[in-house]
Design a protein that fits this description.
About 45% of the residues lie in helices and about 5% in strands. The protein is globular, with a radius of gyration of 26 Å.
Length: about 400
Protein backbone atom coordinates (compact mmCIF):
# COMPACT_ATOMS: atom_id res chain seq x y z
CA UNK A 1 0.00 0.00 0.00
CA UNK A 2 1.42 3.38 -1.02
CA UNK A 3 0.05 6.49 0.67
CA UNK A 4 0.23 9.98 -0.90
CA UNK A 5 0.41 8.22 -4.24
CA UNK A 6 0.31 11.49 -6.17
CA UNK A 7 3.74 12.48 -4.81
CA UNK A 8 5.58 9.68 -6.64
CA UNK A 9 6.40 11.31 -9.95
CA UNK A 10 9.66 11.84 -11.78
CA UNK A 11 12.67 10.23 -10.12
CA UNK A 12 10.66 9.20 -7.04
CA UNK A 13 8.12 7.43 -9.22
CA UNK A 14 10.89 5.61 -11.08
CA UNK A 15 12.49 4.52 -7.80
CA UNK A 16 9.18 3.22 -6.47
CA UNK A 17 8.39 1.37 -9.71
CA UNK A 18 11.82 -0.32 -9.63
CA UNK A 19 11.42 -1.22 -5.95
CA UNK A 20 8.03 -2.84 -6.58
CA UNK A 21 9.44 -4.84 -9.48
CA UNK A 22 12.28 -6.07 -7.25
CA UNK A 23 9.71 -7.02 -4.61
CA UNK A 24 7.68 -8.94 -7.20
CA UNK A 25 10.81 -10.79 -8.27
CA UNK A 26 11.80 -11.64 -4.70
CA UNK A 27 8.28 -12.87 -3.81
CA UNK A 28 7.79 -14.49 -7.21
CA UNK A 29 4.51 -12.61 -7.67
CA UNK A 30 4.12 -11.70 -11.32
CA UNK A 31 1.07 -9.97 -12.84
CA UNK A 32 -1.86 -9.46 -10.43
CA UNK A 33 -0.86 -11.90 -7.70
CA UNK A 34 0.55 -8.99 -5.67
CA UNK A 35 -2.31 -6.76 -4.52
CA UNK A 36 -1.26 -3.12 -4.90
CA UNK A 37 -3.12 -0.14 -3.43
CA UNK A 38 -2.41 3.55 -3.88
CA UNK A 39 -4.18 6.20 -1.79
CA UNK A 40 -4.34 9.92 -2.42
CA UNK A 41 -6.69 12.81 -1.73
CA UNK A 42 -5.36 14.95 -4.59
CA UNK A 43 -4.55 12.60 -7.47
CA UNK A 44 -7.34 13.58 -9.83
CA UNK A 45 -11.05 13.67 -10.54
CA UNK A 46 -13.60 12.15 -12.95
CA UNK A 47 -11.91 13.82 -15.93
CA UNK A 48 -8.65 11.95 -15.33
CA UNK A 49 -9.78 8.40 -14.52
CA UNK A 50 -7.98 6.79 -17.47
CA UNK A 51 -4.80 8.68 -16.64
CA UNK A 52 -4.96 7.55 -13.01
CA UNK A 53 -5.40 3.89 -13.99
CA UNK A 54 -2.51 4.16 -16.46
CA UNK A 55 -0.31 5.86 -13.84
CA UNK A 56 -1.07 3.11 -11.28
CA UNK A 57 -0.35 0.45 -13.88
CA UNK A 58 3.06 1.96 -14.66
CA UNK A 59 4.07 2.26 -11.01
CA UNK A 60 2.78 -1.13 -9.83
CA UNK A 61 3.44 -3.11 -13.04
CA UNK A 62 -0.13 -4.37 -12.83
CA UNK A 63 -3.40 -4.01 -14.71
CA UNK A 64 -6.35 -2.15 -13.17
CA UNK A 65 -9.99 -2.27 -14.24
CA UNK A 66 -12.18 0.83 -14.08
CA UNK A 67 -13.89 -0.65 -11.00
CA UNK A 68 -10.53 -0.56 -9.19
CA UNK A 69 -10.91 3.19 -8.77
CA UNK A 70 -12.65 4.25 -5.56
CA UNK A 71 -13.46 7.96 -5.76
CA UNK A 72 -14.83 10.45 -3.29
CA UNK A 73 -18.15 12.18 -3.74
CA UNK A 74 -18.30 15.55 -2.07
CA UNK A 75 -21.33 17.55 -1.11
CA UNK A 76 -21.10 21.30 -1.39
CA UNK A 77 -21.25 23.11 1.98
CA UNK A 78 -24.79 24.24 1.16
CA UNK A 79 -25.89 20.69 0.30
CA UNK A 80 -24.29 19.28 3.45
CA UNK A 81 -25.85 21.79 5.84
CA UNK A 82 -29.27 21.59 4.18
CA UNK A 83 -29.37 17.78 4.10
CA UNK A 84 -27.55 16.71 7.27
CA UNK A 85 -28.19 19.47 9.83
CA UNK A 86 -31.04 21.46 11.36
CA UNK A 87 -30.06 24.35 9.08
CA UNK A 88 -32.23 22.74 6.40
CA UNK A 89 -35.24 22.16 8.67
CA UNK A 90 -38.21 23.67 6.76
CA UNK A 91 -39.99 24.67 9.97
CA UNK A 92 -37.20 25.70 12.32
CA UNK A 93 -34.04 25.91 10.24
CA UNK A 94 -31.59 28.59 9.19
CA UNK A 95 -28.72 30.19 11.08
CA UNK A 96 -28.81 31.01 14.80
CA UNK A 97 -26.45 33.84 15.67
CA UNK A 98 -25.49 32.75 19.17
CA UNK A 99 -22.62 34.70 20.76
CA UNK A 100 -19.11 33.28 20.50
CA UNK A 101 -17.45 32.03 23.67
CA UNK A 102 -15.83 35.11 25.21
CA UNK A 103 -12.15 35.82 25.84
CA UNK A 104 -12.95 35.38 29.51
CA UNK A 105 -13.95 31.78 28.72
CA UNK A 106 -10.37 30.79 27.82
CA UNK A 107 -9.99 28.58 30.93
CA UNK A 108 -13.11 26.64 29.87
CA UNK A 109 -11.94 26.46 26.24
CA UNK A 110 -8.60 25.00 27.27
CA UNK A 111 -8.70 21.16 27.17
CA UNK A 112 -5.82 21.06 29.63
CA UNK A 113 -8.17 22.32 32.33
CA UNK A 114 -10.85 19.68 31.71
CA UNK A 115 -11.16 16.77 34.12
CA UNK A 116 -11.84 14.36 31.25
CA UNK A 117 -12.46 14.20 27.51
CA UNK A 118 -16.17 13.81 28.18
CA UNK A 119 -16.13 16.85 30.43
CA UNK A 120 -14.34 18.89 27.79
CA UNK A 121 -16.86 18.01 25.04
CA UNK A 122 -19.82 18.79 27.32
CA UNK A 123 -18.25 22.13 28.30
CA UNK A 124 -17.64 23.12 24.67
CA UNK A 125 -21.19 22.23 23.66
CA UNK A 126 -22.49 24.44 26.46
CA UNK A 127 -20.21 27.33 25.46
CA UNK A 128 -21.21 27.28 21.79
CA UNK A 129 -24.84 26.15 21.88
CA UNK A 130 -26.06 27.27 25.30
CA UNK A 131 -29.65 26.09 25.86
CA UNK A 132 -30.31 25.31 22.17
CA UNK A 133 -28.95 21.82 22.94
CA UNK A 134 -29.88 19.89 26.06
CA UNK A 135 -27.10 18.51 28.22
CA UNK A 136 -26.14 14.89 27.42
CA UNK A 137 -28.19 12.34 29.37
CA UNK A 138 -26.44 11.48 32.64
CA UNK A 139 -23.49 13.49 31.37
CA UNK A 140 -22.74 10.83 28.73
CA UNK A 141 -21.51 12.73 25.65
CA UNK A 142 -21.10 9.37 23.85
CA UNK A 143 -24.86 8.84 23.87
CA UNK A 144 -25.70 8.15 20.20
CA UNK A 145 -28.88 10.26 20.12
CA UNK A 146 -27.12 13.24 21.76
CA UNK A 147 -24.27 13.10 19.24
CA UNK A 148 -26.81 13.23 16.41
CA UNK A 149 -28.50 16.25 18.00
CA UNK A 150 -25.09 17.89 18.44
CA UNK A 151 -24.41 17.52 14.72
CA UNK A 152 -27.78 18.96 13.77
CA UNK A 153 -27.40 21.99 16.06
CA UNK A 154 -23.82 22.72 15.02
CA UNK A 155 -25.10 23.14 11.47
CA UNK A 156 -27.07 26.20 12.56
CA UNK A 157 -24.00 28.11 13.84
CA UNK A 158 -22.56 30.80 11.53
CA UNK A 159 -19.09 29.96 12.89
CA UNK A 160 -19.41 26.36 11.66
CA UNK A 161 -20.59 27.48 8.22
CA UNK A 162 -17.65 29.85 8.11
CA UNK A 163 -15.20 27.12 9.15
CA UNK A 164 -16.43 24.56 6.60
CA UNK A 165 -16.34 27.08 3.77
CA UNK A 166 -12.87 28.31 4.72
CA UNK A 167 -11.58 24.71 4.84
CA UNK A 168 -12.97 23.60 1.47
CA UNK A 169 -9.53 23.94 -0.15
CA UNK A 170 -6.37 22.26 1.10
CA UNK A 171 -4.61 24.52 3.59
CA UNK A 172 -2.41 24.39 6.67
CA UNK A 173 -3.84 24.77 10.16
CA UNK A 174 -2.19 28.20 10.37
CA UNK A 175 -3.91 29.30 7.14
CA UNK A 176 -7.21 27.96 8.41
CA UNK A 177 -6.80 29.83 11.69
CA UNK A 178 -6.15 33.07 9.81
CA UNK A 179 -9.15 32.63 7.51
CA UNK A 180 -11.41 31.53 10.36
CA UNK A 181 -10.41 34.48 12.56
CA UNK A 182 -10.77 37.01 9.76
CA UNK A 183 -14.27 35.89 8.81
CA UNK A 184 -15.41 36.05 12.44
CA UNK A 185 -13.92 39.53 12.86
CA UNK A 186 -11.32 38.30 15.33
CA UNK A 187 -8.34 40.47 14.45
CA UNK A 188 -4.98 40.85 16.16
CA UNK A 189 -6.59 42.67 19.09
CA UNK A 190 -7.83 39.25 20.21
CA UNK A 191 -5.14 37.06 21.83
CA UNK A 192 -3.79 34.36 19.51
CA UNK A 193 -4.21 31.76 22.28
CA UNK A 194 -7.93 32.60 22.44
CA UNK A 195 -8.37 32.24 18.67
CA UNK A 196 -6.52 28.91 18.66
CA UNK A 197 -8.66 27.58 21.49
CA UNK A 198 -11.84 28.67 19.67
CA UNK A 199 -10.83 26.80 16.54
CA UNK A 200 -9.77 23.70 18.47
CA UNK A 201 -13.03 23.74 20.43
CA UNK A 202 -15.16 23.85 17.30
CA UNK A 203 -13.09 21.15 15.58
CA UNK A 204 -13.48 18.92 18.64
CA UNK A 205 -17.26 19.29 18.58
CA UNK A 206 -17.46 18.66 14.84
CA UNK A 207 -15.31 15.54 15.24
CA UNK A 208 -17.55 14.25 18.01
CA UNK A 209 -20.85 14.94 16.24
CA UNK A 210 -22.61 12.36 14.10
CA UNK A 211 -25.11 12.58 11.25
CA UNK A 212 -28.31 10.63 10.77
CA UNK A 213 -27.58 9.01 7.42
CA UNK A 214 -24.23 7.68 6.22
CA UNK A 215 -22.97 5.41 3.46
CA UNK A 216 -20.01 3.03 3.72
CA UNK A 217 -18.07 1.47 0.88
CA UNK A 218 -18.02 -2.31 0.57
CA UNK A 219 -16.22 -4.10 -2.28
CA UNK A 220 -18.14 -5.61 -5.16
CA UNK A 221 -21.52 -3.96 -4.74
CA UNK A 222 -20.85 -1.44 -7.54
CA UNK A 223 -20.67 -4.23 -10.12
CA UNK A 224 -23.57 -4.97 -12.47
CA UNK A 225 -23.68 -7.03 -15.63
CA UNK A 226 -24.11 -4.40 -18.37
CA UNK A 227 -25.52 -6.97 -20.80
CA UNK A 228 -28.17 -8.33 -18.43
CA UNK A 229 -31.79 -8.08 -19.68
CA UNK A 230 -33.15 -8.19 -16.10
CA UNK A 231 -32.28 -6.22 -12.95
CA UNK A 232 -32.99 -7.36 -9.38
CA UNK A 233 -33.10 -4.28 -7.14
CA UNK A 234 -33.07 -4.46 -3.35
CA UNK A 235 -33.08 -1.66 -0.75
CA UNK A 236 -29.51 -1.31 0.44
CA UNK A 237 -26.89 -3.84 1.53
CA UNK A 238 -26.84 -4.26 5.30
CA UNK A 239 -23.95 -4.19 7.74
CA UNK A 240 -23.59 -7.98 7.67
CA UNK A 241 -23.43 -8.03 3.86
CA UNK A 242 -20.78 -5.32 3.93
CA UNK A 243 -18.73 -7.28 6.45
CA UNK A 244 -19.13 -10.44 4.37
CA UNK A 245 -17.88 -8.58 1.30
CA UNK A 246 -14.71 -7.49 3.08
CA UNK A 247 -14.27 -11.03 4.42
CA UNK A 248 -14.62 -12.47 0.91
CA UNK A 249 -12.09 -9.96 -0.41
CA UNK A 250 -9.60 -10.98 2.27
CA UNK A 251 -10.10 -14.69 1.71
CA UNK A 252 -9.69 -14.61 -2.09
CA UNK A 253 -6.31 -12.98 -2.81
CA UNK A 254 -5.91 -14.89 -6.06
CA UNK A 255 -9.30 -15.93 -7.47
CA UNK A 256 -9.51 -18.32 -10.33
CA UNK A 257 -10.27 -16.73 -13.71
CA UNK A 258 -12.51 -15.35 -15.04
CA UNK A 259 -13.86 -13.78 -11.85
CA UNK A 260 -12.05 -10.71 -10.57
CA UNK A 261 -11.71 -10.21 -6.82
CA UNK A 262 -14.59 -7.72 -6.81
CA UNK A 263 -16.80 -10.16 -8.69
CA UNK A 264 -16.02 -12.79 -6.06
CA UNK A 265 -17.19 -10.35 -3.37
CA UNK A 266 -20.36 -9.58 -5.31
CA UNK A 267 -21.15 -13.24 -5.91
CA UNK A 268 -20.63 -14.06 -2.24
CA UNK A 269 -22.74 -11.27 -0.80
CA UNK A 270 -25.44 -10.00 -3.21
CA UNK A 271 -28.77 -11.18 -1.72
CA UNK A 272 -26.84 -13.89 0.14
CA UNK A 273 -29.18 -16.14 2.13
CA UNK A 274 -32.22 -14.65 0.35
CA UNK A 275 -31.91 -15.99 -3.19
CA UNK A 276 -33.97 -19.17 -2.82
CA UNK A 277 -36.82 -17.24 -1.20
CA UNK A 278 -36.76 -14.62 -3.97
CA UNK A 279 -36.92 -17.39 -6.59
CA UNK A 280 -39.77 -19.10 -4.73
CA UNK A 281 -41.89 -15.93 -4.88
CA UNK A 282 -40.91 -15.13 -8.47
CA UNK A 283 -41.79 -18.66 -9.56
CA UNK A 284 -45.11 -18.53 -7.67
CA UNK A 285 -46.12 -15.44 -9.65
CA UNK A 286 -44.99 -16.90 -12.98
CA UNK A 287 -42.23 -14.29 -13.28
CA UNK A 288 -39.35 -16.73 -13.85
CA UNK A 289 -41.20 -18.37 -16.73
CA UNK A 290 -42.15 -14.97 -18.18
CA UNK A 291 -38.52 -13.80 -18.08
CA UNK A 292 -37.21 -17.18 -19.33
CA UNK A 293 -35.03 -17.56 -16.25
CA UNK A 294 -34.33 -20.45 -13.94
CA UNK A 295 -33.27 -18.08 -11.15
CA UNK A 296 -33.09 -14.35 -10.40
CA UNK A 297 -29.57 -14.94 -9.10
CA UNK A 298 -28.29 -15.98 -12.54
CA UNK A 299 -25.48 -13.43 -12.88
CA UNK A 300 -25.24 -13.96 -16.65
CA UNK A 301 -28.79 -12.69 -17.12
CA UNK A 302 -29.53 -10.62 -14.02
CA UNK A 303 -27.92 -7.41 -12.79
CA UNK A 304 -28.15 -7.75 -8.99
CA UNK A 305 -28.06 -4.37 -7.27
CA UNK A 306 -29.85 -2.07 -4.79
CA UNK A 307 -31.50 1.32 -4.73
CA UNK A 308 -28.45 2.49 -2.76
CA UNK A 309 -25.28 0.76 -3.97
CA UNK A 310 -23.39 0.53 -0.69
CA UNK A 311 -24.59 -0.06 2.90
CA UNK A 312 -26.57 2.94 4.18
CA UNK A 313 -27.03 3.47 7.90
CA UNK A 314 -29.60 5.54 9.77
CA UNK A 315 -28.47 6.51 13.25
CA UNK A 316 -25.75 3.89 12.94
CA UNK A 317 -28.21 1.07 12.16
CA UNK A 318 -29.15 -0.59 8.87
CA UNK A 319 -31.43 1.76 6.92
CA UNK A 320 -35.00 0.48 6.58
CA UNK A 321 -36.96 1.92 3.69
CA UNK A 322 -38.80 5.10 4.61
CA UNK A 323 -40.20 7.04 1.63
CA UNK A 324 -40.91 10.11 3.77
CA UNK A 325 -37.29 10.25 4.98
CA UNK A 326 -36.04 9.68 1.45
CA UNK A 327 -38.22 12.45 0.05
CA UNK A 328 -37.21 14.93 2.77
CA UNK A 329 -33.55 14.00 2.70
CA UNK A 330 -31.99 15.34 -0.49
CA UNK A 331 -28.88 13.21 -0.07
CA UNK A 332 -30.82 9.94 0.12
CA UNK A 333 -32.94 10.87 -2.90
CA UNK A 334 -29.91 12.03 -4.88
CA UNK A 335 -27.90 8.86 -4.23
CA UNK A 336 -30.84 6.64 -5.16
CA UNK A 337 -31.59 8.68 -8.29
CA UNK A 338 -27.98 8.70 -9.46
CA UNK A 339 -27.60 4.95 -9.10
CA UNK A 340 -30.88 3.99 -10.77
CA UNK A 341 -30.21 6.35 -13.67
CA UNK A 342 -26.73 4.87 -14.01
CA UNK A 343 -28.21 1.36 -13.90
CA UNK A 344 -30.63 2.09 -16.75
CA UNK A 345 -27.88 3.78 -18.77
CA UNK A 346 -25.32 1.02 -18.19
CA UNK A 347 -27.69 -1.87 -18.85
CA UNK A 348 -28.89 -0.71 -22.25
CA UNK A 349 -30.51 -4.10 -22.99
CA UNK A 350 -32.57 -4.05 -19.80
CA UNK A 351 -36.12 -5.26 -20.38
CA UNK A 352 -37.37 -5.82 -16.81
CA UNK A 353 -36.59 -4.62 -13.29
CA UNK A 354 -37.73 -6.56 -10.23
CA UNK A 355 -37.87 -4.39 -7.10
CA UNK A 356 -37.99 -5.99 -3.68
CA UNK A 357 -40.43 -4.55 -1.15
CA UNK A 358 -44.18 -4.31 -1.02
CA UNK A 359 -46.77 -2.83 1.29
CA UNK A 360 -48.01 0.76 1.20
CA UNK A 361 -44.73 2.26 2.39
CA UNK A 362 -42.60 0.35 -0.10
CA UNK A 363 -44.98 1.06 -2.99
CA UNK A 364 -44.82 4.77 -2.22
CA UNK A 365 -41.05 4.53 -2.10
CA UNK A 366 -40.98 2.63 -5.39
CA UNK A 367 -43.11 5.29 -7.07
CA UNK A 368 -40.73 7.93 -5.73
CA UNK A 369 -37.67 6.03 -6.91
CA UNK A 370 -39.12 5.46 -10.36
CA UNK A 371 -39.90 9.15 -10.71
CA UNK A 372 -36.40 10.04 -9.54
CA UNK A 373 -34.77 7.67 -12.00
CA UNK A 374 -37.13 8.34 -14.92
CA UNK A 375 -37.55 4.62 -15.66
CA UNK A 376 -37.33 3.96 -19.42
CA UNK A 377 -40.58 2.89 -21.07
CA UNK A 378 -38.90 -0.25 -22.40
CA UNK A 379 -38.42 -1.59 -18.85
CA UNK A 380 -41.21 -3.63 -17.26
CA UNK A 381 -41.28 -3.06 -13.49
CA UNK A 382 -42.33 -5.78 -11.04
CA UNK A 383 -42.50 -5.80 -7.24
CA UNK A 384 -41.97 -8.77 -4.93
CA UNK A 385 -42.15 -8.81 -1.11
CA UNK A 386 -38.83 -8.20 0.55
CA UNK A 387 -37.36 -11.64 1.38
CA UNK A 388 -36.01 -10.81 4.84
CA UNK A 389 -37.07 -12.82 7.87
CA UNK A 390 -38.74 -9.73 9.34
CA UNK A 391 -41.22 -9.92 6.44
CA UNK A 392 -42.29 -13.55 7.01
CA UNK A 393 -45.97 -12.77 7.54
CA UNK A 394 -46.28 -10.86 4.27
CA UNK A 395 -44.32 -13.53 2.38
CA UNK A 396 -46.55 -16.30 3.74
CA UNK A 397 -49.61 -14.33 2.72
CA UNK A 398 -48.13 -13.73 -0.75
CA UNK A 399 -47.41 -17.42 -1.29
CA UNK A 400 -50.82 -18.54 0.04
CA UNK A 401 -52.69 -16.61 -2.64
CA UNK A 402 -52.78 -16.99 -6.39
CA UNK A 403 -50.43 -14.46 -7.94
CA UNK A 404 -50.19 -13.33 -11.54
CA UNK A 405 -47.85 -11.08 -13.48
CA UNK A 406 -50.51 -8.39 -13.33
CA UNK A 407 -50.65 -8.57 -9.51
CA UNK A 408 -46.93 -7.86 -9.15
CA UNK A 409 -46.62 -5.41 -12.04
CA UNK A 410 -46.02 -1.81 -10.98
Amino acid sequence: MVDEFHSFDGAQGTDLACLIRRLRDRLQCPSDELVCVGTSATLGGPESREAMLEYAGQIFASSFESTSLIEEERLSPEEFFTVHTAYGDPDNGGLFALPLPAVADQPKLNPGNASSTQGYIAEQAQLWLDDSLNAPPSGDVNDAAWRLKLGRRLGTLPAVHNLVRQAKDTCSIEELLERFSKQLGLGERFPRAYRVLLLESLLALISHARRKFSEHYAPGFQLVNPKAPVALVGYTPGRSQGENAWRALKQTPNPSPPLSRLEVCHEATAFSGLRSRIDQMADHAGLLEHLSLSSLSDRAAVAMTSRWVFPVFENGQDYTLNPQACQRNGWLAKRCSEHLKDLFATCSDLQAAVFLGNGKSAIKALELHQSLADTPQRVEVYVLPHPSGANNVRITEFLSKTQTLASIRS
